[in-house]
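ZP: hey, is the adenosine-5'-triphosphate complex queued? I don't see it on the tracker
AM: it wasn't, my bad. submitting now with these inputs:
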Amino acid sequence: MYALEVKDLEFGYRDELVIRDISFHIEKGKFISIIGPNGSGKSTLLKILSNLYRPNSGYIFLDGKDIRAFKRKEIAKKISLVPQDTNIDYDFMVEDIVMMGRHPYKGRFQKEDEEDYRIVEEALYMTNTLQLKDRLITEISGGERQRVIIAKALAQEPFIIMLDEPTSNLDINHQIEILNLLKRFNSKRGTTIVLVIHDINLAARYSDEIILLNMGKILGKGSPEEVITTKNIESSYHMDVAIEKNKYTNTIYLTPIGVKG
Ligand SMILES: Nc1ncnc2c1ncn2[C@@H]1O[C@H](COP(=O)(O)OP(=O)(O)OP(=O)(O)O)[C@@H](O)[C@H]1O
Ligand SMILES: [Mg+2]
């Protein structure tokens, strides 16, 4: 049984389809990156997969079961989504935000217990945000906020974590720290990771598989070596690129040479 299986997915905000005829599956416990140019449909796809948007047609099976058969709370126990845009205007404390990750496990009037506090503290610790726990979410930096939102997703203890460009506001140290943390979560707990990321080299370094989206369609899916080819990158990003192995990480390494004329 797959963690996620998608069949013949189509979606449009208006008449025009932005997700076209997408089918794929993700095996349990894999680390998957979705790459593709701006506007290719990556964020839209993640929102459909996490049940925020209903597709015009097609099917999504989550852990073997049609996603439409799940209750909202049950989906929240299975999937946590870290969105691209994490603006929060409310004056919540960091610890309260992370505690929201525990809501799917609580009845309507049920208070948080010791176990919830332990899980929240662990998530804060793992994302290196424990020192921020009593600060207001509106009064920390963009990168710190991004780490807090990831802490909330971890506290949700889902079976799949989907993250939309979680490292885009982070310095190189914190980028690697977050990706290492996701990798650790992935290998220790078997949590399936689905990551949208622009940095193709980081995608290649951390992922078991890469999905390359172009104009709402899948242009390639497979190992980094299979997907990150000069042909695929040239036809989707319209760039001349050089692709080699990085001698330090021993993973695929892409250097942009120039925009295709
Ligand atoms: N709320 C919306 N209403 C209408 N059209 C939208 C909406 N959000 C996105 N789109 C359009 O859908 C297409 C796919 O957008 P999407 O945000 O999924 O791209 P993306 O691959 O995540 O891009 P980026 O790399 O810039 O984040 C684009 O053409 C975009 O203009
Ligand atoms: Mg996006």
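AM: back. The chain has nine helices and twelve strands.
ZP: great, adding it to the tracker
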